[in-house]
Structures are given as C-alpha cells and as structure tokens.
Design a protein that fits this description.
Blueprint: E1 2-5, E2 17-20, H1 33-36, E3 94-103, E4 109-110, E5 115-119, E6 156-160, E7 166-172, E8 183-195, E9 198-211, H2 214-220, E10 231-234, E11 253-256, E12 266-275
Parallel strand pairs: 3-12
Antiparallel strand pairs: 1-10, 2-12, 3-4, 3-7, 5-6, 5-8, 8-9, 11-12
C-alpha cells in the first residue's frame, strides 16, 4: 500500500554496535524507565537529568533486544562534521533528536565517548553530495530551495556521547525518496577521536536506520516545503528495510512541540544498546533490504557527488 503524496502548498536546513530498545524487558529483567527519563523535557544539554525519577537495574549481562544492522545505503559520505545543528539553513519542520547509547552487555551502563553519526535527505528527498539524484515523483531542483547550505555537508553530522551516553542533534524532519519510507541513517563509532572538525580513527560497530510513524509523516508532508514534492510515498509496511518491529527496529518515539501545530516541530528519542564485540560498517548491503514496492525504481542514486565533496563509500 502506498500513501499518495497529493500535497498542497502551506514554509516552514565511529564505534560499538547499536540496537534500539522498545521498552521490552529481556530475560534477565530490566527496568528501562531510568533510560526513558533521559529524554524527558528536564534533560539538560549536557545530558544530565534535572530530577532522576527512576533507576535501571539488570539481573543478567544482556539487558536489551539488539536491532540487526542494515545497509548504510547509497548516499553515505565519510568526513561528516562534529556538530549539534546539522541543518545549515535547510527548511523543514524542526526535529530535536536525542539518543542514549548504553552497553547492553554490561548492565546497560552509559557508553561515554561513543560517536553517533547521522545523515538524511532534505524536505524534497535530496542528499548532500548527491544533489542531482532524482528523488522520484515530482519535486523542484534542490538548488531551488533558497538556502545557503553547503551541497556536500548539509544534514550530516556527528555528536559525541557525554558521561550519560546521551547525544543530541538539531535537524529537520526528513522528506522521502522513491522507493523508501521516511528515515534517518545512523552509525555508532567507538575508539576514535575528534580531529579537524570531524571524527577519526576507531571503528564502526553498528549501522542502522531510524523511522517515523506513518500518520506523523503524512501530516508533515502536507506542509511546505514538503508539499512541493508529490508522488507515491512508501509506508512503513512496504519499506524494503523496516521490518515491522516498532522501536526495536528503529521506530522513533515522537513528541509534538505543539499538538495543534505540527509545523512547530517534534522531539524524537530512542535508547541504543551497544554490543562491544560487534562490528558492521553497513557497506555492501549486508542486513536488511528486500524487494522494492511494485513498479518502483531501484534505491541507487542517479547523481554524483560534487568534485569537492568527500568520496562516497561503497553503496548498497
């Protein structure tokens, strides 16, 4: 089933393995409320909670259900900048993303110093580094968005987890491209360090994707600038990567900043469990995937990175 994008104009810019908990209790029995409180409105910018209302305990070495690594996709670029705000002036519905990285093999203790890297498309489905790639349907050229964003770096970035394992990004709600549902790509890195504005060394231990509920995405895509991209939007049930597992498969928990006005933005959150022995760069298409919806083109980009952009990794 497709959600048809007949949008009207109305405007608003490396390294332990990761997994997502949906609040399920593993065999050992984990009270996850303490980690859920990390995303409360009382969370400060440094990740500390103004008032801890609960604590987490575990009676086994494994405390969370680990999400399977999936492909990094065809739009990954190395050398993203370490920064909190990744928009660079790109227009869209504001999204504050808070992720907590914990060690699932050690009682869900915070993983201080883990580097979380995210990248996603803009409101019309374009990725930095691939601004001539056709997002499918009918959309203006990326150059018509009116922003001053750098075509090789927008909507890409790292954040380093603080002592509580928390990272925070300021971005926009992603658009969509055929044949994928709305999503954010993600890698978790450990063992490296910040150098020359980016993150160097260490290794990638988890590659995954974050997803959005269909009802929220459908409402967002009726707003400008999203509404200028029309066509057939792929719902979660028909996506080639999302496997239907809810938050354990990367489905974000979203809270509207203003319930009566979605254009004011959303807060998205997830707790990410770490397996310190796993390694997965996501290159080469391992994990996830599947057959695109009937009649949809393949998931390969049709554009090429600018000559001054970082080189692209292996595509899925």
């Amino acid at each position: 089933m497709f959600m048809t994008g007949t949008h009207k104009d109305t405007t608003i810019t490396r390294r332990r393995a990761l997994a997502v908990t949906g609040g399920t209790v593993a065999a050992g029995g984990l009270a996850v409320a303490g980690y859920q409180s990390a995303f409360a409105d009382t969370l400060t910018d440094d990740g500390s909670s103004a008032s801890a209302s609960a604590t987490s305990t575990s009676t086994s070495g494994s405390c969370m259900t680990l999400m399977t690594s999936v492909t990094e996709g065809p739009y990954y670029l190395d050398g993203a900048l370490v920064r909190k705000d990744i928009t660079e002036g790109k227009s869209g519905v504001p999204l504050t993303l808070r992720l907590t990285v914990v060690d699932a093999t050690d009682g869900c203790t915070p993983v201080s110093g883990a580097a979380v890297e995210i990248w996603h498309c803009d409101a019309w489905g374009y990725y930095s580094g691939y601004t001539t790639a056709n997002p499918g349907g009918s959309a203006p050229a990326e150059s018509e968005d009116g922003s001053t964003a750098d075509d090789s770096t927008y909507l890409r970035g790292y954040q380093i987890a603080n002592a509580n394992g928390v990272v925070k990004f300021e971005t926009i709600f992603p658009g969509w491209y055929t044949p994928r549902t709305c999503h954010i790509h993600l890698k978790v890195h450990t063992g490296g360090q910040k150098e020359d504005g980016t993150y160097e060394g260490g290794k990638v231990n988890y590659t995954g994707q974050l997803f959005f509920p269909d009802d929220v995405a459908e409402e967002i895509f009726t707003l400008e600038p999203y509404s200028k991209h029309s066509g057939s939007y792929t719902t979660l049930d028909n996506d080639m990567v999302y496997d239907g597992g809810g938050t354990s498969s990367g489905l974000l928990t979203l809270t509207a900043v203003h319930k009566a006005d979605p254009s004011k933005g959303y807060k998205g959150s997830l707790t990410l469990g770490v397996d310190p022995d796993a390694e997965n760069t996501g290159a080469g298409g391992g994990g996830g995937g599947g057959t695109p919806p009937s009649g949809a083109p393949s998931d390969a980009p049709t554009g090429t990175p600018p000559s001054d952009a970082p080189s692209a990794s292996a595509s899925s």
